[in-house]
From TrEMBL:
Belongs to the peptidase M20A family. LysK subfamily. Binds 2 Zn(2+) or Co(2+) ions per subunit. This is [LysW]-lysine hydrolase. It catalyses: [amino-group carrier protein]-C-terminal-gamma-(L-lysyl)-L-glutamate + H2O = [amino-group carrier protein]-C-terminal-L-glutamate + L-lysine. Catalyzes the release of L-lysine from [LysW]-gamma-L-lysine. One of its GO terms (biological process) is lysine biosynthetic process via aminoadipic acid. Keywords: Amino-acid biosynthesis, Cobalt, Cytoplasm, Hydrolase, Lysine biosynthesis, Metal-binding, Zinc. The keyword Endoplasmic reticulum does not apply. GO terms for cellular component: cytoplasm.
Length: 359
């Protein structure tokens, strides 16, 4: 099989971005990616979670390349400016990263494929709390190394992500005249937010990765003339030192009696070492391509948080693009950077296959 050319790799990501795939509606792009992989040397299918899965290689070690193919809502007209910049929802977050995985694996030589099995998983529903594709994947594979498809820039290696917890607070109380004594449902909900924010400040450690970040994601209040109601959604980004279970316990104590509390979307923070076989391989490949490796820790979450408790293997996230463009109207991917990421990853996967030993 002839190596995959740059134009073919660019056509792959352009068409994938052109197919809408908001979380929960990934069927069309999954079918396209599965068909493309089958036509380019993979054994591919759409799995029970709706993810596009393709495998190449027959070696004794397994490398899973898990990227997500769903996007947040938002219609960005797909276009390529001057054959150099791909605009469109998902170009950065994160179809660009998954197509980097697929294009790199499609270009691996026979010697590398004899040393390892490479499994590309285009996962569904990463942009919503269900993480359906990743949760299914952890039941299917026992990898020796894991790559997560998220934008880091072609020179970037993401070692970790913060944890997450979403707090839904509700206050219900009898209506009363505002000239009377007492507090309204809105007053109590506001006090709940002040307590959450104060707890976050007390629990924060050094730097942005050590901080507990608290934000108001939604708030509403009203009355039907008999009962007042107020509801709020508070988002928390948690460092490794503050697991979601501990946060829940401490916040329940702080909010006891003030409001009803429901916790959702719990994810444990994860931070991987920078001296793993996988990190070394990518670092060397980036340098050989003329780049300077940069290690990153992200304040958001990704499917790395989902798989880390299940897969005890060298792990990092990699992919082209600027993560500051995630979810924005300006989301776009420079195709020269995409080309470089494909070449770097293809080189790195060869190094990984030669270095890994089966567990």
């Amino acid at each position: 099989m002839t190596p995959l050319g740059a134009e073919q790799a660019r056509a792959l990501v352009t068409e994938a971005v052109r197919i809408p795939s908001v979380s929960g509606s990934e069927g069309a792009v999954s079918a396209f990616l599965s068909d493309w992989m089958n036509a380019h040397g993979f054994r591919a299918h759409v799995d029970a979670s709706g993810s596009a899965v393709g495998e190449r290689g027959s070696g004794p070690v397994t490398v899973v390349l898990l990227g997500h193919i769903d996007t947040v809502p938002g219609d960005i007209p797909v276009r390529v400016d001057g054959n150099e910049v791909l605009h469109g929802r998902g170009s950065v977050d994160a179809k660009g990263s998954f197509c980097t995985f697929v294009a790199a694996v499609a270009g691996l030589d026979a010697d590398t494929l004899a040393l390892a099995r490479f499994v590309c998983v285009g996962a569904t529903e990463e942009e919503v709390p269900s993480s359906r594709g990743a949760h299914h994947a952890v039941t299917q594979y026992r990898p020796d190394a894991v790559l997560i498809g998220e934008p880091s820039g072609w020179e970037g290696l993401t070692l970790g992500y913060k944890g997450r917890l979403v707090l839904h607070a509700a206050v219900r109380k009898d209506n009363f005249h505002t000239a009377g004594e007492g507090t309204s449902a809105g007053d109590d909900l506001t006090e709940a937010w002040f307590r959450v924010r104060a707890w976050a400040q007390e629990r924060s450690g050094a730097g942005i990765f050590g901080a507990v970040q608290a934000t108001v994601q939604g708030i509403e209040s009203g009355t039907d003339g008999l009962m007042q109601t107020a509801r709020g959604v508070f988002g928390l980004r948690l460092p490794p030192e503050v697991p979601p279970q501990l946060a829940q316990q401490e916040l329940m104590a702080r909010l006891d009696g003030l409001c009803e509390v429901d916790f959702r979307g719990a994810e444990v923070a994860v931070r991987h070492p920078k001296d793993s076989v996988l990190a070394r391989a990518l670092r060397l490949a980036i340098r050989d391509a003329g780049g300077t490796p940069v290690y990153k820790l992200k304040t958001g979450t990704s499917d790395m948080n989902v798989v880390a408790p299940h897969w005890d293997a060298p792990t990092l996230a990699y992919g082209p693009g600027d993560s500051r463009l995630d979810h924005t109207p300006e989301e776009c991917l420079p195709l020269q950077e995409y080309d470089r990421a494909v070449a770097v990853l293809r080189d790195a996967l060869g190094r990984v296959a030669r270095s890994l030993r089966p567990r």
